[in-house]
Design a protein that fits this description.
- The chain has a domain of 166 residues: Rossmann fold (3-Layer(aba) Sandwich).
- By secondary structure, it is of the alpha/beta class.
- α1 packs antiparallel against α2 and α6 crosses α7.
- The radius of gyration is 20 Å and the shape is globular.
Length: 321
C-alpha cells in the first residue's frame, strides 16, 4: 500500500471514529481532538534554502533552547514561521534586507526545527509558546525594527504586540485572524460536530489559560496601540482564508492589504514580487507614509506597467496582482 493510500485509510478511520464519538461520547472525542489540535504537523513545502547559513544562536527560555540564525548588521528584523514550519521558510527575505543594512533574525518555534520542545512537551506547541519565543528572541537580539511573520506565526506576533512587544512595523503573510472559526474547519475535516467541538474549545481555553477571543487579531487591533502593518494574502489560500487578512486590514490602523492569486499558502513566501513588496515596506523610513515617497500618479503609472491594480477603501489600501 502506498503512503498516500495509508494516509487516506488512516484519515477515514479517524473520521468514522469521531463520528461515533460525536454521538455517544463527545467528552472522549474532545480529549482526542485536543491532542490533535496541539500536535505539530510534519513540515510541508520546499526545504531548500534561498540563502547561506547565518550566525547560529541559542536563547534559553524556561530551561529550554530556542535555536536560530542571524545575518547582517543594523536594525533588527525578526522572521517568524508558521505552524509546522521552520525558520528557513522565510530566508528569501534575508539577502535584500541585509543588503539594505538590516540585521535579520530567524528562529524555530518550540517543537519546531532545531528548537527544544516547549512547556507543552515534544511534538506539541501553542500560539502562546510562539509568542513567548518571539519575545525571548527579541529580548536577546535587541529592539524590533520589524517583524515579518507567516500564518499562525503572524497571529502569535500580533498577540505578542498586544502584550507589549515593541515593534516599529509588521508584515503578516497569510495570517490567521481568529482561531475560533478554525475549530469548525478542524471539526469538519475530522468528522465531528458541535457536541465535540464546543467541548474542544473549552479544553483549549483551559489548557492555555485564556479565551480564544484573546487571539482575535482584528479585536486586538482595536484595544492596543499597533504599528503600521502590511498584509499579503493569496485569494486561493486553502489553509488561512483571504478574508482573515481583509478583517485584520479593516480594523488595524495604518494597514495595507496586498492580494495575490495562485501562490497559495507557502509559495507566497518565495514569490519575488512579495519579497520585494515586503522589503520595500520594511525599509521605508520610519514616519514616512506607507504609500511611499513617490507622487501618487507616478506610483499609479508604475503599478499599471507592472501589472498591479489598486483600489482605495476607507483609510486602508487594498492592492492586487
Amino acid at each position: 500500500m502506498t503512503a498516500s493510500a495509508c494516509a487516506a485509510l488512516q484519515k477515514s478511520t479517524i473520521v468514522r471514529s469521531f463520528s461515533v464519538l460525536e454521538r455517544v461520547a463527545p467528552a472522549a472525542g474532545a480529549r482526542w481532538a485536543e491532542i490533535l489540535w496541539f500536535t505539530v504537523p510534519s513540515p510541508r513545502g520546499r526545504r531548500d534554502r534561498q540563502t547561506g547559513p547565518g550566525r547560529p544562536f541559542q536563547v534559553r527560555r524556561h530551561g529550554r533552547t530556542v535555536a536560530g540564525e542571524v545575518w547582517g548588521e543594523g536594525p533588527a528584523v525578526y522572521l517568524v514561521h508558521g505552524w509546522g514550519g521552520w525558520r528557513w521558510q522565510l530566508d528569501g527575505f534575508v539577502a535584500p534586507l541585509v543588503e539594505a543594512g538590516y540585521r535579520v533574525v530567524a528562529f524555530d518555534a518550540p517543537s519546531h526545527g532545531g528548537s527544544d520542545p516547549g512547556p507543552e512537551g515534544p511534538g506539541r506547541s501553542t500560539i502562546l509558546e510562539f509568542a513567548d519565543a518571539l519575545a525571548a528572541v527579541v529580548a536577546e537580539g535587541g529592539p524590533a525594527h520589524a517583524v515579518i511573520a507567516h500564518s499562525l506565526g503572524a497571529t502569535a506576533a500580533a498577540f505578542a504586540i498586544g502584550g507589549g512587544l515593541a515593534v516599529e512595523r509588521a508584515a503578516f503573510l497569510a495570517p490567521m485572524a481568529d482561531p475560533l472559526p478554525y475549530t469548525r474547519t478542524f471539526a469538519g475535516r475530522l468528522g465531528f460536530g458541535d457536541r465535540v467541538r464546543t467541548r474542544l474549545v473549552d479544553r483549549i481555553e483551559r489548557r492555555v489559560g485564556l479565551p480564544l477571543s484573546a487571539f482575535d487579531v482584528p479585536a486586538l487591533a482595536g484595544r492596543v496601540p499597533t504599528p503600521p502593518l502590511l498584509l499579503v494574502h493569496d485569494r486561493l489560500d486553502a489553509e488561512t482564508g483571504w478574508s482573515d487578512s481583509a478583517a485584520i486590514a479593516a480594523s488595524w490602523p495604518r494597514s495595507r492589504l496586498v492580494t495575490t492569486s495562485g501562490l497559495g499558502h507557502r509559495r507566497i513566501l518565495r514569490a519575488p514580487a512579495v519579497i520585494a513588496e515586503v522589503t520595500g515596506f520594511v525599509t521605508e523610513p520610519v514616519g514616512q507614509p506607507q504609500n511611499g515617497s513617490q507622487p501618487a500618479a507616478q506610483r499609479s503609472n508604475e503599478a499599471a506597467r507592472s501589472g498591479w491594480a489598486a483600489a482605495q477603501t476607507s483609510s486602508n489600501r487594498y492592492q492586487h496582482w
